Amino acid sequence: MTDQETTVAQLRDVVERFVAERNWHSFHNPKNLSMSLAIEAGELMEHFQWLSLDEAALVAADPKRKHDVGEELSDCLAYILAIANAMEIDLTEALKAKMIRNAVKYPAS
Amino acid sequence: MTDQETTVAQLRDVVERFVAERNWHSFHNPKNLSMSLAIEAGELMEHFQWLSLDEAALVAADPKRKHDVGEELSDCLAYILAIANAMEIDLTEALKAKMIRNAVKYPAS
Amino acid sequence: MTDQETTVAQLRDVVERFVAERNWHSFHNPKNLSMSLAIEAGELMEHFQWLSLDEAALVAADPKRKHDVGEELSDCLAYILAIANAMEIDLTEALKAKMIRNAVKYPAS
Amino acid sequence: MTDQETTVAQLRDVVERFVAERNWHSFHNPKNLSMSLAIEAGELMEHFQWLSLDEAALVAADPKRKHDVGEELSDCLAYILAIANAMEIDLTEALKAKMIRNAVKYPAS
User: Fold this and answer.
1) What residue segments make up the domains of chain A, in order of their start?
2) Residue B29: predicted pLDDT
3) pLDDT for residue A109 is more than 90
4) How far apart are CA C47 and CA D30, in angstroms?
5) ipTM higher than threshold 0.95
6) Which CATH number fits domain B8-105: 1.10.287.1080, 1.10.3430.10, 1.20.120.680, 3.90.1150.10?
7) D46 touches chain A (CB under 8 A)
8) A43 in contact with D at a CB cutoff of 8 Å?
9) What is the C-alpha to C-alpha distance for residues C97 and D74, in angstroms, rounded to an integer?
10) CB contact C47 to B (< 8 Å)
């Protein structure tokens, strides 16, 4: 399964089942989850911390480093999905509404 | 369109078109984008910064505050999609692989 | 008063009086304060988010931007001092002990 | 040496010597250092990520955990001192100016 064939709801279900099977719902408070997202974003940054922009642009060309970045990115995404689950936020609706607001703020040239 | 009917690839396209129309590709370096995700994660945390866990759990019951959190969460998601686009990482494959590793690390009881 | 003449304890007192005068001790829980530091670190990063390393190195040469960075840096420092106050951690002792450990980890060439 | 007897300038010197002895000045770009501070703030948050506020308030009573938090807090402080060094910002002046602005924004009751 790839991004082409997978709905956002299906990804949310993957995270939801993982949390339910471990009885982690009581820990999945929005405050804790927002911290968790920021912690994982910090771990993602570690891969680029001391690199020039040119070096950072080349990370994806190295299969091992691309894989490692994908793991950190997955952790970030998992917490976004967990927050959406815990707060019953539809990410597609929220993202599209926000992009319309962004388009007003930053008009295309 | 909701999370039920929308593929991850379709959300990636929304962000990709937005970036392309503004000629922002040169700014969308993975180093800059990882910083951007952490910045937005910080803005998301602001909504829960001084709340108790009980208060944080009630934020979703307030339509205005739920909407505001949804906006910040969308900004975070947009940067994850942008990193996936810039580095050609399939998020579904990466997330599923990571959840399998997490399941080994944290077995279901 | 400058860094030359000011002790760390004096800076801690500035923050402690500010918190005490507003009866904010109940909010100054280490969990909240660690979130606050990460939020302010995000605001600091905003000043460098889209800059090349060369451009970032020149920010200090612009008095207005240097001042703005100094404000964000102060917010970060204030939360570090607040955590030290809330948890009764001596920053000088902790920093010196950590630098000795770092020196073992990264020997000088 | 403790916070009572140590000036901010002396702590800045500890970090400056460490950087100079390793020839790390070229890496100590403000963009990289602001990322580093956010990364370390994330590691600090890990100590409180899943705790209730009551549990977080008790961390300082456990010598081992207090020590561990002190190490993370030192890493955060070291990067603030490094940014002050790299950008020649006087932290005492900046903090006092910011606290005066904060006092206007949040008057004592």
Assistant:
1) 8-105
2) 98
3) no
4) 10
5) yes
6) 1.10.287.1080
7) yes
8) yes
9) 9
10) no
